[in-house]
Here is the input.
Amino acid sequence: MLIQYVLVASCISLLILFLRKRGSVRTAAGTKLAFVLFVMFGIYAVLRPEDVQAVAVWLGVGRGSDLLLYALVVVFTFATLNAYLRFKDIELRYARLTRAIALRNAEPPSAD
Amino acid sequence: MTDWSEVWLIVPVYDEGRVVGDVVRDVLRTFPNVVCVDDGSRDDSAAEIRRTGAHLVRHPVNLGQGAAIQTGLEYARARPDAQFFVTFDADGQHQVDDVVAMLDRLRTEDVDIVVGTRFHGDTSHIPWVKRAALKAVVRLSPCSRRLGLTDAHNGLRAFNRKVALQLNITLNGMGHASEIVRLMEYWNWRVAEEPVMIRYTDYAVAKGQSLVNGVNIVFETMLRNRAGL
Here is the structure.
């Protein structure tokens, strides 16, 4: 099916993009591994939807697409929370930077 | 006349140009050391403060009241002679007399931090919505209850050098009040409450925190608790 080519291609390009963009050493290796696994699962799910279907039935979810939807919701929630916490952390660093600048430029009262 | 040269008042200022000049001049009649933190105001607050004789520290961008208090605190505690610190709102709702009473308690009693409370005696001057909201916040906060605090979100606080050195506010916005309460328990500061008068002028009411912001505070505090200190 044509859709399979499209989806597999987009999975692979996503992987390439991810590995190229985040070249920094600090990027958590765990995230990368998880992403690679995710892409591989994606390709697999596209090529063998009947297997996903089988897993869904085994888990008691009825349809493979429903299983994917549930998984998506969980992953999305996790990612959102993660982004929120990260954002808070960056906000704090930003505040400390601003504070350092502010304290350096402090103006004592003019003598009069 | 008592000598107040070892006391520092920390005044976070955000868009208070209309009133901050008068408020600070009034405070300076009693307390010689005032540091105003202009939190990236868009109005002429900074110019007004420069005319008063207070120290001015300016955030190049707006961060929030919690961050402004922390900045003022770090400025003040760098002064070797600073022994007592007071957080004071710029909108004129706090009274200098109350600050004097709180500092007297800090000097004479065995306490580290004195927090103002609006809920002693007659509370009819507080708008009822505000009253209900503030009580709800106290009820929702296990820390406040354990410490016996009745008004966790009062902006008027006085504390000694020990507290000043340990205090590290990480919540930039309005969640800092709850954060301070949590730190009281964490560091085992001896806490006392002092009844204070809040002047609810139309200006102060219009500038005050909206109740909607209460939702933000609760959410911020909960997440911060999960994520640890």
